[in-house]
Amino acid sequence: MFSRIKGRTTPAAWREPRAILRATAGVATLGFLIILEIFARRYAGIPGPLTEQAKETIFAPKPGPLYAGLALMMVVLTWRQRFVAVGAAICIDVVFVLVRWAVDAEAADGHSFGNGALWVMLGYAVIAVTRRSGRERVLLLKGVGLGLLLAAGRKTGDIWLIITAKTRPTVLDQYVATADQALGNPSWVVGRILQATDPIGTHLLGLVYAQLAVAAVVVALYQLRNVGVEGRFPRHHLVRTFLVIGLLGPGIYMLFPVVGPVFAYGPGASGTGGVQWAVANLWPHTPPAVTAPHPMTYDGITPRNCMPSLHTAWATAIFIHTRKGPRILRYAGTFWLIATLGATLGFGYHYGTDLIAGVVFALTIEVALRSLDRGWDRSGVQFVAYGTTVFAALLVSYRYLPTQMAGHPWLFGPLLVLAMASVIHRYVRITGVWEPKAAPVPQPDPRPELV
């Protein structure tokens, strides 16, 4: 099945297993979406991601990354084809808007654009099947799949959040808040700082927090800028990590449901929660007292999306993938990570313990994906096992040792930080070994001067 030439595997030898892997991943993704569709209808009484995405071919789309998905798809096109695709998408959207205006149809949250981007992506899928062949067909289908996955990923995440609220009536915030005392209640501290800088700090961090996906698309477009010219995707890029984080994270939400300090210890936010559901109205001015924690009932609409902090995980992935970019991209990645950490704490959406778990979660997934692409070796297996163990240990300690952690902050606070730092250190070491070293430029032999 595999052909070798003088000990080296020929392209035909590795294309087949890679193609099988891609096909398996595609089938698994489709199966997951179908299962989630059934689960959403049966247990939450809501349409699933496939239904929601299909509806947007006709009805006004909800705010989401349809045009961002189109931008990712267009990395496989020539510049002329990109102008045609964008022009077609805009024209289709104008037609849809005029029709809705004529029939007085309401748009979701006042958002009317996006149908055109979806129609263009579907159109290119048809073109790939009917008008392309060989590598051109595969490349175009990859581009379409990438764009549609980004759009479907947002739908999947939204459905997951609703499912967590409807299927997890009790939350574990008291456990996490008690464990957070070992870190000095950072959400309370940053929350007071953010309130003191209002409105400038609030508006700036609010923009960063809300536009995290836009930052990810900008970085991804830089990484994929040469796909159309080279006729292939890079072996690893940000979109893969971003999607896998969003795919696996909600599963942890189901195991460890937490709503966040502004909800469990404050008035709530974004139209959900309320003081009537909170332990007390304490956030951010009065840290909670150390008491024996217990599960608490919360409303049926607030997502249980704190543990781990996926915003922190995504911002960490953006930071990692900007390290090889130009200086301005590296600075932007650093700023986005710091600002996201400040926003998650300052708005009361997360505890400090969530952020530590989010960093470990992101680095473990990043190494797993890179190992999957380059081939598993001992260092990759060891890192993923270590990262998974640390992540599991964090969750277990938050659940079963919170009062001990709060009672001995001088011990458990540094231990939490050291656990995260150990994963970061191992990540830097392993990726340093994996990165190809630049070969020194040979210098010409000195020539004797002619006298």
UniProtKB/TrEMBL annotation:
Q: Which residues cross the membrane?
A: 20-40, 83-101, 113-130, 204-222, 242-265, 328-349, 355-372, 384-401, 407-428
**GO cellular component terms?**
membrane
Tell me which species this is from.
Answer: Streptomyces hygroscopicus subsp. jinggangensis
Name the UniProt key words of this record, in alphabetical order. Answer: Membrane, Transmembrane, Transmembrane helix
List, alphabetically, the InterPro entries matched: Aur1/Ipt1, DUF5933, IPC_Synthase-Related
* Domain called Inositolphosphotransferase Aur1/Ipt1: residue spans: 188-364
User: Keyword Transmembrane: yes or no?
Assistant: yes
Please give, as recorded in its UniProt entry, the membrane topology of this protein.
Multi-pass membrane protein
Localization, UniProt: Membrane
DUF5933 domain residues: 20-163
Name of the protein in its database record = Uncharacterized protein
The answer, when asked if Membrane is one of the entry's keywords, is yes
Tell me which stretches of the chain form a coiled coil. Answer: none
